[in-house]
Amino acid sequence: MKKATIAVAAGIATAGCVASNPDSIQPIPISTIAYQALDCPTLAAEDKRVAERLGPMIYYQNRQRSADVAGILLVGLSPTGLGSPEHSAAIAQLKGEREAINTVKISKGCSEPQAPVYERRPISDIRAEAQREQRPQGPAPLPAASAAPAKKQDVPGFGRFNQ
């Protein structure tokens, strides 16, 4: 009975420490006024831009969620509870922008479908990692020493011994 009570108490204590599931984050209502003056191709381009920003945020949020679960299971602490970044606000903002754009597209009768969101690391992170891997690690290696030992006459400064 004691073990069950402790497990329930631990579950309740850590429930708020896990990063939110990106699918469960509700969009923030965004006004459509900023998008009313745009034509259909521009709305489609804007939707694509927002989708390209949303994908990496979802990627990072899922990574943070996995780290939180692992931290709680292994150590009993959540990185999010300790101040690690959570991207819920940015995801909610971008989801709200997508809804506003989609609302204007529907009201204008635009035929372009909503841009897909690809959950992935941003290209800038991938490039930076590739550059770090290409940098030499540590000092340059020294040239290999010759196999033959030096003779006394080859050593400068020992003229009287070079006979």
List the helices and strands and how they pair.
Blueprint: H1 2-14, H2 33-36, H3 40-74, H4 88-108, H5 123-134
Helix pairs in contact: 3-4
Task: Describe the fold and architecture.
- The protein has helices at residues 2-14, 33-36, 40-74, 88-108, 123-134.
- By secondary structure, the chain is an all-alpha fold.
- It has a domain at 35-117.
- Taken from the alpha-carbon principal axes, the silhouette is flat
Largest sheet: none
In whole angstroms, the N-to-C terminal distance is 95 Å
**Strand residue content:** under 5%
Determine the structural class based on helices, strands and strand pairing.
mainly alpha
Helix content: 40-55%
Order of helices and strands: HHHHH
- Radius of gyration, in Å, reads 30 Å
Give the tally of β-strands: 0
How many individual helices?
5
Kindly report the average pLDDT value: 74
Uncertain segments:
4-15
Task: Give the key terms.
single chain, 163 residues, 52% helix, flat
Short description:
It is built from five helices and no strands. The chain is mainly α and 163 residues long.
